[in-house]
Amino acid sequence: DQQVKQNSPSLSVQEGRISILNCDYTNSMFDYFLWYKKYPAEGPTFLISISSIKDKNEDGRFTVFLNKSAKHLSLHIVPSQPGDSAVYFCAASRRSRTGNQFYFGTGTSLTVIP
Amino acid sequence: KAGVTQTPRYLIKTRGQQVTLSCSPISGHRSVSWYQQTPGQGLQFLFEYFSETQRNKGNFPGRFSGRQFSNSRSEMNVSTLELGDSALYLCASSRGTGENTEAFFGQGTRLTVV
């Protein structure tokens, strides 16, 4: 059962424009959400996170929005740059005495066209 | 400080053989999780170890096993390899103490089964 879903396998955006990557989740117990960026043949790199007590977190060109009622989060990249071309994974977790198991989406491949 | 280190980076094995992959987490991190990445399947959770104990387990057959040592280093073993086991195997470390925190990934081991 896929608890975190990224329904768009790929996205193409012109350089300088906004990239919006979307993610949906089903488990209302998740309280921490993360975005990772992955280049081919490398491990995912942590990008940005947001706690469920917030609805927005910004870090430079990257902003994550959380809509708890819709169980939806999105990553905005403004302005998009060719170096942003990668696969982006969203992930969710919840605090637990038995640890933080991270649930990942299937990824969205972003291509930024120069 | 040093990141997550996975060895080896690449492996080619024959069907029926077994393989052992190694992961050294970030210093101070006690949780190590393993993931399998195949095209179109995102990151599939294998298992998580914390203080030498398997704390969470994904939906993989018993041919996949792991262990963690007292220094938090972890190994993953796959026995009786099948062609479908060809994938990028990723290890992630985190503090694992229950608070919301990100996981940091190694560069992965690319396993090819022929």
Keywords, separated by commas or semicolons:
heterodimer, A: 114 residues, mainly beta, six-stranded mixed sheet, five-stranded antiparallel sheet, 11 strands, B: 114 residues, seven-stranded mixed sheet, four-stranded antiparallel sheet, 53% strand, globular
Helix/strand order of chain B, N-terminal first: EEEEEEEEEEE
Helical segment count of chain A: 0
Percentage of residues in DSSP E strands of chain A: over 45%
Q: Greatest chain-chain interface?
A: A-B, 30 and 31 residues
**Cα distance, first to last residue of chain B?**
37 Å
Overall residue-averaged pLDDT value of chain A: 93
- Which term fits the overall shape of chain A? globular
Percentage of residues in helical conformation of chain A? under 10%
What structural class is derived from the secondary structure elements of chain B?
mainly beta
Oligomer: heterodimer
What form of chain B results from the Cα inertia axes? globular
The low-pLDDT segments of chain A are none
Distance between the termini of chain A: 38 Å
Q: Helical proportion of chain B?
A: under 10%
The secondary-structure element order of chain A is: EEEEEEEEEEE
Using only CA atoms, what is the Rg of chain A? 14 Å
Biggest sheet details of chain B:
7 strands, mixed
Mean pLDDT of chain B: 92
> Segments of chain B where pLDDT lies below 50 for 5+ residues?
none
